[in-house]
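Minutes, project check-in
Item: structure for the 300-residue chain
Input as provided by the requester:
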Amino acid sequence: MADAASRAEQRVARVRDDAAGRYTLAQEFYRRATGPGHQYGTAELSFMRWSLARGVLAPETADPPGSPWWRSVNERLLRDKAEAHLLAAEATGTASARSVELWVDFIRAPEPGRWYRAHNASIVAGYLQHEDLAAAELQVERFMMNVALLRVLFTHTMLVQPRLALGRLSALGPLVADPRHRAVQMFLDLGRSFPPEYPVTAPVEDTILDEHALARMLDYGVIAPRLPALYEFSAVSLDQPRLPDLLDDGVPAYVWPHEDRPIWYVGNTGRHLRAIARATGVRLLWEPSPTASGRRGPHT
C-alpha cells in the first residue's frame, strides 16, 4: 500500500483541474475529520468560494486560465489535510511535513488554536514553496497575496495572543477570531476588500484606494503597526523561521521588491487610522507624507 503522502497526492490530483471538486474535497475533510457539530471550515470555505468566483482555481487550460500560484497554494492546503486525515484514521505512518503533523493534532483534538496553527502552517508553507509562481503574477495580485497572509496571521494572533494583536482591546480577540464563528470572515474574506475578477485590470493604487474603509482601517490602523511582532510570533508558532523575512523593515515583502515599498503607503491616510491605532495602544508604523511623485510615502 502506498504511504499516506502518496495517496493524498493522488486524491488532490483527481480534482486538480476541477475547481468545484477542490471545494468538495475541502468540505469532505471537515465533515469526516470533525463531524457535523463543528464549523471549523467556515472561514476557509468562504475564502474558497471567493477564489472560485474569481476564477483563480480554474484549470490553466480554461478561458481565461486560473492562477498557477493560487492553485498551488490551495493544493498544498488540500494535500496536507488529506494526508493528515489518512494518518489519523490509520494511526500509523509518518507525516511528510510539519504542517501535516499539526493537522493530525487538530483532528485528534479539535480546538480553535490548533486549527489556526495547522491551517496557517499549510498556507505559509505554500507561500514559501511557490515564490517563483508568485513572481509571475501582476503587482496588484501580489499585493493581495501579502494582505491575505498578514490577515490570517493577525487573526490567529487575535485568538491566542490577543494583547499582542489588539492591545487595550484584547478582550475582543477570542470573541471575533474563533474560526467556528462567521464573525471571523470579516478578517479573512478578501471579497469584502478587493475586486472579484482575475486578473485584476485596475492599477494597484486604485485597488488600494477602492478598498472598503473598514478594511483599510484594519490593515493600516490595527495590523500594520504590529507586523514585525506578528510575524515573529507566527514564525515560532508555526515552526517557520523564514516568515519574518517576508517583511522589509516592517512592510509586507512577499515577492515584493524594495523599490516598490512606496505602494504600501498609498492607503495609509486619514485621521481615523491614527485614532484606531491609538485606541489599540500603538502609533502608525507607516506615517504618510507627500513625495515628489505625488504618492504617499513613509514619514521618518
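Outcome recorded: The CA atoms of residues 1 and 7 lie 9 Å apart.
No further action items on this chain.
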